[in-house]
Amino acid sequence: MDSRELALKDYYHIGIAAVTVRGLLSPVVRDVDQKDIPELSKEVNELAEKARSGKLKKEEMEGGNFVISNLGGIGGTGFTPVIFPPQVAILGLSRATGNPVWQDGGWQPRTMLPVALTYDHRLIDGADAARFTKWLCNALESPINMFF
After folding, report:
1. 5 in a domain, yes or no?
2. Nearest residue to 98 (alpha-carbon basis) of 106, 86, 89, 108
3. Are 81 and 92 in contact (CB under 8 A)?
4. Is the CB of residue 75 less than 8 Å from the CB of residue 95?
5. Does residue 76 form part of some domain?
6. Residue 13 is a catalytic residue
7. Count of domains for the chain
8. Considering the entire predicted model, what is its pTM?
9. pLDDT tens digit string along 81-98?
């Protein structure tokens, strides 16, 4: 930060916020683009358990460039996630709720998941961030579309 230089990384390491008795910790899943869903799920669960049991190593919390935080499990309905440098963005998910939505001429029940994306405007264009958020919402609504 002091040198005011930008280091462009060629990897995708994502921090996963984990609630522990010592506060919020963010273990990092490395090279997420090179792993499939079962591998990612297993690694996230292992890192979260290490965080909760106090066995997480310092280096397992370093090197992330994006973080995902989920307050839904503890009842959060919305929040403003804060970037922890050197990460460039954080995605905050809240608790999903059932809401009526006007669709096709009538009220339909829909599950709504509040999402919030905080990003460093010095590195990420706001329009690109909005497009990413829209893509993410579409992917969550229809996960099969992510593969096509």
Report:
1. no
2. 108
3. yes
4. yes
5. yes
6. no
7. 1
8. 0.87
9. 999 888 999 999 999 999
Q: Is residue 8 part of a domain?
A: no
Give me the pLDDT at residue 43, please.
97
- Domain of residue 132, CATH code: 3.30.559.10
Cis peptide preceding 86, ω within 30 of 0? yes
Q: Please classify residue 124 by burial: count the beta carbons closer than 10 Å to its beta carbon, then call 0-12 exposed, 13-18 middle and 19+ buried.
A: middle
Active-site position among 4, 55, 58, 121: 121
Do 18 and 24 meet the contact criterion of CB atoms below 8 Å apart?
Answer: yes
